[in-house]
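Hey everyone, long-time lurker, first post.

I ran two proteins through the pipeline my lab uses and got sequence/structure pairs for each. Pasting them in order. The first:
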Amino acid sequence: MAEAGTRGHERVVRNRWERFIGVERSLSARIVASMSITICGFALTFATYHAAGFYFTSIVVLTVVFVALIAGTRLALAHAVAISLAADYFFIPPIGMVLTSAASWEHFAIILSITIPVAMAASSMRTAFRETIASRQHAERMLAIVSHDVRNPLAMVRLAVQLSESAPEARQRELRASMLRNLDHADAMIQSLLDVASIRAGKTLPLAFRPCDLAAEVRAIVAENHVGARVEVVATEPIVGRWSIAGIRRALENLIANAVKYGMADAPVVVRVERHGEHAWLSVHNDGAPIPKANREKIFEAFERASAPDDVAGWGLGLPLVRAIAEAHGGTISLESAPRAGTTFTLDLPIGS
């Protein structure tokens, strides 16, 4: 019970800090909040000065810290200067003058030399705290999505088991096939999560390589998985090297799936295999809205996705896996995207011997 109470208290404190630091505020709101904090800080300084006959610099520092946490570095520095000048006017002889004596200049320099690094440190802490909040919220959302998606095929398997108990033999065969497909789907989801965890830990995907013709393998993969889809393959010459066909299959299927999702419905998806010296280029092109420049690096990170229609779901694992597969081959992935030109992802893979 005591432990539960402690956790509850910690949760309340955390929520309060999140509301204090993590809430997005407009510039006007931050200015009002910082002015309110500064006025309270100066009032406390004024009261302690008249009660103790001494000017407490620590109150100014704490005021700057709170302003930095709620409003950022620039406003904190501005208020540090303002409160130092006000202190000079009210507390440093001659009273009623600003920066007119050696003592006032010395005090002003001391305050700034303390408050500037304190404001920057507090602002850095604010940024880190806000990033932590955003990361945790994002992780919670992704955990909910992943849990939901993995449960779907398992629920289908459970339903198939229940239906098969009283179904005729032919129907039972269909249900068993459905069970296997859904279990394979769930296994593929879990494998993707494990692979992404391995990538984020800095490991290279374990792939098995063998000699083969990349162009022929790509044609076979597209024919096997995209019969009737609007996918065209352009491969004019054999390109023989050492490849991980399982890895190429996963990369190609992810790229084609994205191209179909985000591309124009009436435009073909073009898969092109070309040789450039000792490298093979495997590209997937679709026509449609370009990927914003701000998203072009982010989409290669796990659980990040480009903007998409509301009905397009996904975990944001496909492109990180594609990049990891390219790197496991000793290659790279590049992206070109522009209005009217469409979007092209290109794997640049060395031709292994």
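...and the second, right after it:
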Amino acid sequence: MLHPTGRHFGQRVLAISTLALAITLAVNAEAADVDPVVLTFSTVGDSRQDPVSPDGTTPLATMSGQDKTWLQNTKAWARIQRSIQAQKASLLFFNGDMIMGYGLAGPTKSTSVTDVLASDLMAFYRQYGFWRGMVAPAMETGTYIVPVPGNHEVQSKPLGKKAQVENENAWRANMGDLILDTARFKAIVGVDATHVNVGNNAAFDSLSSDQSQLSYSFDVGDAHFAVVNTDPVGNDNTAPAAWLSSDLSSAKSRGAQHFFVFGHKPAYTYSYAPSGAAPTPAAGLDVKPGPRDNFWNVIETYAATYFCGHEHIFNMMQPKGSAWQVLVGAGGSPFDSKFGDPSATSGLSPNTDRSYSWATVSIRKSGKVDITAYGFSDSYGPTQVLKQATLAH
């Protein structure tokens, strides 16, 4: 008989370990069969590059000629898309600022070719075209892209960072075919988008411009998805709370069980400043606390989850202790927590404040919803899980 440390003993331990692993895998597989995932979607925002204030990781001098021209963080955004597709997401909600924009996308008065090429109108369409080219492979290989308007799409910076009708029209011209191509949606996702509402809902909130395809909604099974324009003309930094309340009420009355809302600006700014420093100034809907509260009351009333961007950083919070705000605005734009800043080393979340990030959501047959945020560092290290949360049905 061999000593317990001999070959036979080692083989026995290996056999027991192998059996234990097999049992664990079988249990996990059985659990998955009992409560399978019925729909997976992902969400991220803010991939545009900045020609004036690029991040310290990618200074203007080291930015590729391509990204200088098209003003896109191609490397980060392309990797995020590949990762999302590897996670089998059927839908990808992009929460705005896919282009630098920020001009006035109206017709030029000049007939000079040089002036036309240098115009804001040309810049908007050129940048939209590059972004659409980047997402085209995802659309062809199983992931439907759902766009959300951001301030860089609808606002003009020279005109005071205010939304413009011309820019809303340019949004529809460049994103309208995605909002919502129901035949293509079914071909990609495998099920119908139902109760599609993409019309002009401006009257609910007394808005002055056509909001068709800017704030819109649809159902997939018993899940309801609503997109809100957080910078409508004449009412910047304000989500359409009255329309959203009506929309979610209608969805609930027809049996919707899950409510997911997507907008560009956060309802509650994530303050990433280090301990003892002044808090991060209000950057989103909290610029106007009253209308923000009206919006968040709707989110709380329907136990909705709000996904947003605008701040180029990752954070998940429950501002009022119940509903989640999931901030995934680090899709490639210059990080808000600047390269070398104390916030990146001594802030609230030093491991995630400078991570390119996104969230993937799985809805299970039981009604349970799993939210997992993923990210990789500004040095393009391995992808890691940043945070997880489960919503009980």
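Reply from user beta_strand_b:
Welcome! Quick read of the second one: The domain at 34-391 is CATH 3.60.21.10 (Purple Acid Phosphatase; chain A, domain 2). Confidence is low (pLDDT under 50) at residues 1-17, 24-28, 344-348.
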